[in-house]
Design a protein that fits this description.
about 325 residues; alpha+beta; Rossmann fold; D-amino Acid Aminotransferase, Chain A, domain 1; 3 domains; five-stranded mixed beta sheet; 9 helices; globular
């Protein structure tokens, strides 16, 4: 078909690139893009809230993206944000026609990004065994790590009776999906886990959406562990008065780089292998008896806050190396 002029042949000099689907305020990718550029690795950023003008040129066995005068050949795709982002250009209030158009544009921008993801030869976390929190718990339990008693329900009091055998125990309530709600457009509102006292639980109404209800596990400190390729990088977190304290009470939270004990390293290593991920931020608790308790794995997970608080660049360096290696092999 190319010889007949019906199909243009792929360009041999197309520039290999990494494609990242994210939002414009993703500072981790801003920094990574600059460091990759210093190594002559091109990163094409597809901000779902401000999509650049890119054409897809697909062949039977190759993919090219045309961005201005550039012809790019994607070799790795990393989806960092899967939220539905509303169209931001429209003024408020909008007519029904404007609402329909905004939804149309947003839907098909997302479909455009998914098309590139499907055609790209490699994807970060392509073989991930579990993305949802309950499925992740199942993998953790198979790996020999304790998981909290958990149920999902709109009725917290009913969920409490499933998790506990008595009514005077604290619970944790957390969302089933993303921790962020974007409303109004461009503003992220956090929906963080909450400690629920028994007196509160008895007076709660039925929730408008399902919640994860978990047993509260007393612990000495938290672990944030980053899995990046073959690297496992751990931070010890202490002094959190609440889940959102990392953002709201920064001065009270202590974050330090730490080395995992041999037992913890072995257990977490098994979990990472079972999860089959290129990148993930694992959240765990460590009890007074030094037992690990698994909470969740964030497959997008930011890392610059933990690096800044701990005074290192270990995760940034590891992500840079991992991405660059995938481009060159």
């Amino acid at each position: 078909m190319a010889d007949l002029g019906v199909m243009t042949p792929a360009q041999e000099d197309a520039t290999p690139c990494v494609v990242v689907a994210t939002i414009r305020d993703d500072m981790e990718i801003s920094a990574l893009s600059l460091r990759l550029a210093a190594q002559n690795v091109r990163l094409l950023r597809l901000n779902v809230d401000e999509l650049p003008d890119v054409d897809i040129v697909s062949y039977l066995d190759t993919l090219e993206l045309v961005h201005g005068a550039e012809v790019l050949r994607p070799v790795l795709f990393w989806s960092r944000y899967l939220l539905h982002h509303p169209q931001r250009a429209a003024s408020e209030p909008r007519s029904l026609r404007g609402e329909i158009l905004g939804t149309y544009v947003s839907q098909h921008n997302s479909a455009f990004i998914r098309t590139i993801e499907e055609l790209c030869p490699r994807r970060m976390n392509d073989g991930a065994a579990a993305t949802g929190r309950l499925a992740q718990q199942r993998v953790a339990a198979r790996s020999g790590i304790r998981v909290p008693g958990t149920t999902v329900t709109r009725d917290v009091a009913r969920g409490s009776r499933r998790v506990h055998t008595h009514d005077e125990a604290k619970l944790i309530g957390k969302v089933v999906g993303e921790h962020w709600v974007e409303q109004p457009p461009g503003v992220l509102n956090g929906t963080f886990p909450r400690v629920l006292e028994p007196s509160i639980i008895r007076n709660l109404d039925v929730e408008p959406a399902p919640l994860i209800i978990q047993e509260f596990v007393p612990h000495v400190f938290e672990l944030r562990v980053y899995a990046v390729g073959d690297d496992t990088l751990a931070y010890r977190v202490e002094g959190k008065s609440s889940a959102e304290a990392l953002w709201t009470d920064i001065d009270d939270v202590q974050v330090s780089a730490t080395t995992l004990s041999s037992a913890h390293a072995a257990a977490i290593g098994r979990l990472i292998r079972e999860l089959n991920i290129d990148f993930g931020a694992l959240d765990l608790l460590v009890t007074e008896s030094d037992e690990l308790v698994f909470l969740e794995v964030n497959l997008v997970g930011d890392w610059r806050y933990f690096e800044k608080a701990a005074g290192d660049t270990r995760v940034s360096d590891s992500v840079l190396h991992h991405i660059a290696m995938k481009v060159h092999t």
